[in-house]
Each structure stands twice: as structure tokens, then as C-alpha cells.
Amino acid sequence: MELAKKGLGTTAPNPMVGCVIVHNNKIIGEGFTDPYGGPHAEVNAINSVKDKTLLGEASLYVTLEPCSHYGKTPPCANLIAEHQLKEVFIGLEDPHEKVAGKGIKKLKEAGCKVTVGILEDECKEHHKRFLTYQEKKRPYIILKWAESNDGFLAPDSSLRNDNPEPFWITNPQSKQLVHQWRSQEQAILVGTKTVMEDNPGLTTRDWAGKNPIRVLLDRELKIDQSFQVLDASVKTIVLTEVINASNYIKGVDYTLVDFSKPLANQICDALYQHNITSIIVEGGAQTLQTFIDENLWDEARVFKGSTCFKSGLPAPKPQGTLRERQQILTDTLSLYIND
Asked: Which regions in the chain score pLDDT beneath 70?
């Protein structure tokens, strides 16, 4: 699992898998999944073994069932079988319809002794994005917001007249952490009002890593190319109800949703069709509340700053279980799980 985390943010929509090969209680090979389209963990682990003659007497440990089908790469189960590894320990069976026990079956038919369910709960937590996508047919959803010390997302709108710039509730260290999170998830979603008021870039400027796919809720296509989110520097998906394609910007993906009906479920369906396995919902208040009201979220990451606004836009109230709380200098970060 430690190895697998090295692929966080780069392997999607594939799972981030880790693999270790052991001979006589000594690690002789290690690997994790390459960025999407590249070799899987088992391939990298086998390729890292200097003396391949040891493989026939070696054991392989892997966080997820080896694949058994041809996709961007050949099946890992075939490669393990070809090298005649004697024993394979697997954290979880892969629920993907093209795998789902077929990799295990192939290994057993090749004479491998296979054990499934090693650190199963820990592997489920590690593979939560992939499992949510495969089993619930939607991305893993992380709600994120920052609120003032007295529970407001933004100060009273009258203050915007004097200062149209975004109000930063959190400190620079928290902001950098958010950019790290963006590099780890496949996509980021905001509503029209957030774009119109703050003109965010939704990129990872303060962290080394890839930018997430930008997903915008824009019912009437009010956001134009003067806003950063439509600068074509990052893949962008706009969810709208405007059918007329003459209003569409070249290079931007448009998906139709019905804003008069519950929205979170439609968003999840649209993102599933785009092969998005995880997303951070960054706002605004109405967008966050939509996911909370439809109970379509997995984590909420909530910053509380030291500033008090006294009045303004109230922050949402997560209904989940508080799992963790930590201090980031002047800010408090709380992690809630929807269980």
C-alpha cells in the first residue's frame, strides 16, 4: 500500500496498485502502477527483479487482484503465470466486470497457490476511489470548504462592493495543502457563482503535480472565456442545460443535465460516463448543499480559519462522522466520513 500511494493522482481511472515480490523472506522486486496507459504494478515489480530465475520460487504480494484482460496493457495474471510464481497473496478481489475473479482463476489454473483477503479492510480504504467507481457507478466524492471561525463561507455581500477580491479564510499552508489534494484527485467541481465571484484557476499552482479536470456547473452558460476556468489549459467539462451548440467553446466538453431536477445524482452519472473516479467539490454553498441533501458524498474536509465575519453566507453542516481533526498553524482542519 505504501508503494501504491506513489501512484496517487496519476493512475486514474485505473486503480493505484502496489506489488512486492519476496524470495526466501527477502524482497527481490517492487512496483506500483504507472500513470494511466503505462505498465501495472505487477509488471513493474517483475521487471525490477534482477535474477528472473528466482521467480519460480518467489511469492508475490499485491493490493488488488491482477487483471486478466487486454486493455491499454496485456493481462498481469498471464505474466505472473508465465514466470511460474509459486504463491500470490492478494488484498482484494477486483470488482471490475472484466476481472471479478478471472485473474485469480487464471493464476490457480497455472498452478499458483492464491490467498485473497490480506489486510482486506486496509486495502478497501486504500482503493476507495476505484471501488466506489466500480461498485456505485459514480466517482468518490470529497466535499471541501473553508469557513470563518464563526461558521460563514463568505462575509456579507455588501463587503464585495468595497473589495471584489476573494476573501481568503485560510492561511498559505492550508492553501498549499488544497493544491496537493487537487493533484491527487481526478477532477474538481464548482458552481457558476463561485466562478463569477472568485475567478478561480482550479489548478495546482502551489504544488508539483497534474491539474485536475475542471467540471463547471453552468446552467445558462454565463461563464465566458474571460474567466480562467475556460482558458483551455486544462481539460474542462461544462454541465449545462443549453442545447444550442453554437454557444459552446471549442475544446470544452459540454454535457446536458436537467437543473430542474435533483442535480447531484445527474452530476455523478455524467462524471461516471467521463470515466472520472474521484472529484473534489469546492463550492459554492449551493453546490455543496446539493450533494449533502442528496447524501452523495464520501468525505468532507472542512477548514476553520481564525477570522470572524459576524454575518454572511452560512457554511454547510456535514452529517457524517468526525474521523480526524488537525491544526494547521492558525487553521483547524476537520475530516468527516459519510458512513
From this structure: 69-73, 158-166
Grouping H, G, I as helix, E, B as strand and the rest as coil, residue 308 is coil
Q: What is the grid cell recorded at 80?
A: 505472473
Do 190 and 282 form a contact (C-beta atoms < 8 A)?
yes
H-only helix segments in 118-190: 120-126, 128-136, 158-162, 172-184
pTM score over 0.85: yes
Return the pLDDT at 160: 57
pLDDT value of residue 301: 97
Per residue in 252-270, pLDDT (tens digit) is 999 999 999 999 999 999 9
Cell numbers for 126: 486504500
Do the Cβ atoms of 18 and 92 come closer than 8 Å?
Answer: no
- pLDDT, residue 164, reads 57
Residues 6+ positions from 150 with CB-CB distance below 8 Å: 308, 309, 310
Contacts of 95 (CB under 8 A, 6+ apart): 131, 134, 135
Nine-digit cell string for 157: 455581500
The single residue listed with the C-alpha cell 491482477 is: 66
Contacts 24+ apart (CB under 8 A), 247-253: 247/221, 249/225
Rounded CA separation 158/162 (Å): 8
Give the span between the Cα atoms of 132 and 141, in whole angstroms.
9
Contact 104, 116 (CB under 8 A): yes
pLDDT of amino acid 66: 87
* Of the candidates 47, 38, 49, 41, the residue with the CA atom closest to the CA atom of residue 6: 41
Q: Which of 30, 42, 87, 282 is catalytic?
A: 42
Check if 42 is active-site.
yes
Alpha-carbon distance of 319 to 300, in angstroms, equals 9
Gap between the Cα atoms of 4 and 27, Å rounded: 16
Nearest alpha carbon to residue 285 among 149, 190, 202: 190
Q: Percentage of residues in the chain with pLDDT exceeding 90?
A: 76
> For residue range 138-194, what is the model confidence (pLDDT) as tens digits?
999 999 999 999 999 988 876 656 655 567 899 999 999 999 999 999 999 999 999
224, 252 contact by CB (below 8 A): no
